[in-house]
User: What shape does this take?
Amino acid sequence: EIRDAGSSSLVDQSAFLSSPYKKIIIIYPSTLVIKRYINENEMEFVKINKSFYDMYVLRAFELDQFLSSELS
Assistant: This one.
């Protein structure tokens, strides 16, 4: 979802999501803890070393740490 000046639009991510490769989602500029909602009653905190749906979600300042742990 892209939010801009009070409006929002959805971007088609089907090609991105169907790719067989690992994906890295970088959240910027937020430094807040990232939460993932599993269902309406269950939520978990997203950790940079734990993937879901073949994706890693991390904040911009965690990128160096993530890459050094993945490449070692």
Summary: The chain has a mean pLDDT of 88. The beta strands are 2-4, 7-9, 23-27, 35-39, 42-45, 55-59.
